[in-house]
Amino acid sequence: MQQLGKTSVIPFGPQHPVLPEPIHLDLVVEDERVVEALPSIGFIHRGLESLTDKRDFNQMCYVAERTCGICSFQHGMGYCEAVEHIFGVETPDRAKYLRTIWSELGRMHSHLLWLGLLADAFGYENLFYQCWRIREKVLDMQELTTGGRLIFSVNKVGGVIKDIDVEKQKAILKAMDEVEEELSVIRKTFFEDYSVESRLKGIGILTAEQINALGAVGPFARASGVKADMRLLGYDAYPELDFEPITSEDGDCYARCYVRMLEVFQSIKLIRQAIAQIPEGELSVPVKGNPNGEYFMRVEQPRGEAFYYVKANGKPNLQRMRIRTPTFANVPALCEMLKNTEIADVGLLVVSIDPCISCTER
Amino acid sequence: MVEHSVPENILEEIPVEDLLLRALELKKEGLRFSQANAAYVDEKFELSYSFSDYETLQLHTLRLVIETDVKVPSITEIVPAAVFYENEMKELFGVKIEMISMDYDNKLYRIRQEAPLGPQKKEVENATVG
User: Fold this and answer.
1) Considering the domain boundaries, does residue A327 fall inside one?
2) Chain B residue with Cα closest to A52
3) pLDDT at B124
4) CB contact under 8 A, A45 and B124
């Protein structure tokens, strides 16, 4: 007869060395094995969605951008595109390409940030520094083209307010070459180093069935073989660019790392394509009046599918603006993943979903 | 080059009694739960439960339009991933959702004000900040 271990509850977070942002988990453990994980959030809820009372639909673009300090641009873009659908306006092609370029730059820097955090979580500090050093080149391009390193404020309902001229396009292409070359070296360390492999392979496995049942999204889902990528919806310039969603079948931490690493290289290719194909033209179309109607908009953020719901009644202030962020969708799968894992792996596993808690709580 | 599809979103208005049945049917059809969301409009609650077909990326949303005192059954027994969404609707709007599998009892976001986006919300007409 199997002897039951002693059950205890260990609090994890909201302050923890591996957590960039606060989430709390009550870990029910038997000896060193996690039996159940009960999440709680709410440490940094900001009530951004309730600002529709005080800000009109144009100003809400800047509020949406401030949902997150990492994927800020795409929050503003997703919100603007939801409102543009309500107005029934088509943004100029150049604006679509510019949004695509900034989206992919955002994906690159977010994934590089995460790769660094992952390296830090499994104790490879040098790799962490290298990832973040490379990320700086992407941030420099964001600053060069928008004036902001993380929060750009270049979106508006109807298009964008800044252009990327030929000189800046050349600077981006040069930076992409450098990032690609330097990341190719880092990639070998991530995928060929024995100590990295031993910390990531076979840990925190989720199957495609579990991912679908728990509604997980983004690279977290794609690492388990779920080919879900909202860029396939065909917004912005993506219908004119050549790409395939990157997936893995393994569903473990190593697979999540693999998918995100390859997505950085994919973003480089998408940016090159977009710069090669970007048409001349206007940056925005005039939008008159106030929105009246509702729309569900989905975009593929670095962490996965983000959901923007906008409802308006013809007045300047929206009736409702709701952002469902990827991490909000990924927490249930995280808790399932933590079951039957070693307590020593919990920090790494939490990081492996790339949690963004300030996004989640809005 | 990969094929990009732009399917039409489906919005299906249903009575509250049909919520569990329709959620179960959509799940059996192979759709994944995407999100749930509340809005307080014209002194009623509008609840939206969205499901996605991840092959076609089509979005199917179930819409309930209910009085604010109507009790709504939780879908968490059918869709465990709806836990946070239903707790959010309950805490921020005051939607009376019953039998959530993990009920945070209005402490998901740890806010002081009760249902800040629900019926107690102050209406502000055309407000802008200069």
Assistant:
1) no
2) B127
3) 45
4) no
Which positions in chain A touch B80 (Cβ < 8 Å)?
213-214, 332
**Chain B nearest CA to A169, separation (Å):** 24
pLDDT digits (tens, 9 = 90+) for A31-66: 888 888 888 877 778 878 778 778 888 888 888 888
The answer to whether residue A339 is domain-embedded is no
Nearest CA of chain A to the CA of B110: how many Å? 5
Complex-level ipTM: 0.83
CATH number of the domain where residue A212 is located: 1.10.645.10
Residue B83 at interface with chain A, using a CB cutoff of 8 Å: yes
| Mean of all residue pLDDT scores within chain B | 84
Instruction: Give one word for A159, left, alpha or beta, with left for phi > 0 and alpha for psi -120 to 50.
Output: left
Domains, chain B, with CATH or none = 10-98 (3.30.460.80)
CA distances from A354 to A155, A173, B53, B88 (A): 25, 27, 24, 22
The nearest CA of chain A is from the CA of B121 a distance in Å of 9
Q: Please state, in angstroms and as integers, the Cα–Cα distance from residue B22 to each residue in A90, A130, A298, B56, B62, following that order.
A: 34, 50, 23, 20, 8
Name every chain B residue with its beta carbon within 8 A of the beta carbon of A218: none
Task: Tell me the per-residue pLDDT of A217-243, one tens digit each, with 9 for 90 and over.
Answer: 999 999 999 888 888 888 888 999 988
Neighbours of A177 (CB within 10 A): 12
pLDDT tens for B82-118 read 988 998 898 888 899 988 888 888 777 777 778 888 8
Which chain B residue's Cα is nearest to A321? Answer: B39
Residues of A within 8 A of B84 (CB-CB) are 41, 328, 331-332
Domain residues for A107?
Answer: 59-310
Looking at chain B, which residue has its C-alpha nearest residue A230?
A: B57
Whether pLDDT at B6 is above 80: no
**A103 within some domain:** yes
Domain total of chain A: 1
Of A56, A305, A311, the CB nearest to B39: A311
Interface touch A322/B39, C-beta < 8 Å = yes
